[in-house]
Design goal:
With 310 residues, this protein is an alpha/beta fold. The protein contains nine helices and ten strands.
């Protein structure tokens, strides 16, 4: 569900001849719930094509991260350039970047390909509480990466760190979004799940206005990978030509159902179910609001339930 307190013209930005290609620059989660693994699932479920540049190998499960191995920076950027120089990309999405050197290198790469919109998920801490970004890298995220972002998707703690604003309500979420725009981002989605509210409010602030998305709160500890999944689902839909606000709405509905159908795996914060549409599940037994995509737009969920039953 969403409301539009202010008119938002989402036609300002269009991807020419979208082909659904998303380059993800992020870390690997050995348990499969978050990181590159979640990104590939989400983009594929949206009907997009996922490519990856892996920034970190984590030794990780639902209870936490016990070790991290970082490849050389030139291997990270080399993976990305290999994809961009051959297949190309309609959207770039970033996740775990680990340290200042990687943040700076990725920011430079995005700047060199400024014709491709970048969705920045400023990953700092895993759902389990494990830190995934060095303290000295935060300034580089603020001054080098965000100025080149089309969309930034922080949760409440991340938004507070990036903006210095204490977020306690919707007005604070909006203020944080506006602060990120002043840093150079074109849009910011301030996710509200960390606030103690009966419903969850996500606030999308762009240079054209603001939009509020409201969903019921699901009481569960199984939310591992929700941030990665949401940002990548948005990227997958945008890469196929969906306007930003519609991509945010459809991706949010998809993730909400994925949390609702979490498979209850692991001893800690378990993963969500990225593949729920394949089983024909959902609050109405079908797809989320992606069914309401503009005429002629590819609907990644259409017919999946029937196909799996046949």
């Amino acid at each position: 569900m969403s409301t539009s307190p202010e008119a938002m013209d989402s036609t300002d930005f269009e991807i020419p001849e979208p082909k659904g290609r998303v380059l993800v620059i992020a870390g690997s989660d050995s348990s499969g719930g978050a990181g590159i693994q979640a990104d590939i699932k989400a983009i594929s479920m949206m009907g997009g094509y996922a490519m990856t540049a892996i920034t970190a190998l984590t030794v990780q499960n639902t209870t936490g991260v016990s070790a991290v191995h970082l490849p050389p920076v030139e291997i990270i950027t080399g993976q990305a350039e290999a994809c961009l120089n051959d297949i190309g990309a309609d959207v770039i999405k970033t996740g775990m970047l680990a340290n200042k050197a990687i943040v700076s290198a990725v920011a430079a790469l995005i700047a060199a390909h400024d014709d491709i919109p970048a969705i920045v998920d400023p990953v700092m801490v895993a759902t389990s509480g494990s830190r995934l970004l060095d303290e000295d890298a935060i300034e580089a995220v603020k001054t080098e990466l965000i100025p080149h972002a089309f969309l930034v998707t922080p949760n409440i703690p991340e938004a507070e760190v990036l903006t210095g604003i204490k977020i306690e309500d919707l007005d604070d979420q909006r203020a944080a979004g506006e602060a990120l725009l002043k840093m150079g981002a074109w849009a910011a989605l301030i996710k509200g799940a960390h606030l103690d509210t009966e419903q969850v409010f996500d606030v999308l602030v762009t240079r054209n206005g603001m939009r509020l998305f409201t969903r019921s709160r699901i009481k569960t500890k199984h939310t591992h990978g929700t941030g990665c999944t949401l940002a990548s689902a948005i990227a997958g839909l945008m890469a196929q030509g969906l306007p930003l606000d519609q991509a945010v709405e459809d991706a949010g509905d998809y993730v909400h159902e994925a949390i609702l159908h979490a498979p209850d795996l692991g001893q800690g914060n378990g993963p969500i179910d990225a593949f729920w549409p394949l089983r024909g599940e959902g609050e109405e037994g079908a797809a989320p609001s992606a069914n309401a995509s503009p005429e002629g737009m590819h609907n990644p969920f259409a017919g999946l339930g029937d196909m799996m039953k046949s």
